[in-house]
Amino acid sequence: MTQKDITFVADFLTEHFNEAPELYNRKGKYFNVERVGQYLKDEDDDLVSPPNTEGNQWFNFLKDSTHLKESPLLFPYYPEKSLHFVKRQMEGVIDQCLQKPADVIGKSVHQAACMSLYKISQSEDSTPQLFKLPFLWNDKTSNLHYVLFTMLENSISKIHILRRHTDTSSLLYYLILSELFSCRCYSCLDAHFYDDETVTVVLTESVQQEGKERVLAQLPLS
Question: Where is each Anaphase-promoting complex subunit 4 C-terminal half WD40 domain found (predicted)?
Answer without folding.
Answer: 136-222
